[in-house]
Amino acid sequence: MKIELRKVPFNKSDFETSLNNIVMKGSFYKETPNIAKIDAILNGEVEVKCVKCLKPFTKKIEEKLKLIITDRVYNGFDNEYDVIEINSNIIDFDDIIASEIESAKLEYDNICEKCKESNVNIEI
Length: 124
Prior knowledge:
Layout lengths: L1 E3 L8 E7 L2 E11 L2 E15 L6 E15 L11 E4 L4 E3 H13 L7 H5 L7
């Protein structure tokens, strides 16, 4: 799902989109002419590699997303929202989901059930 930043409404709009078995559901709205906010939840499953045995396993994802999208350099810091600066004036929800999937694959706590049950501590 894609939407131009200029077409994002100032009133909250609900949405739901998915990519690779991950569903992103929430709302988005424009705060200023150049800033949109997204409040959403990601749900689904993704295949990751165990950091201990390196075998693939399926990990459940349930993550809250709070994003600020802007087509300008964002001056400042926000404790509650992560900031995404876009160049194309297009908010691409598939890119956001894909980025979150890649982040999940790189998490340090990706440990399969077999390794959780064993007491072997292997550092890689």
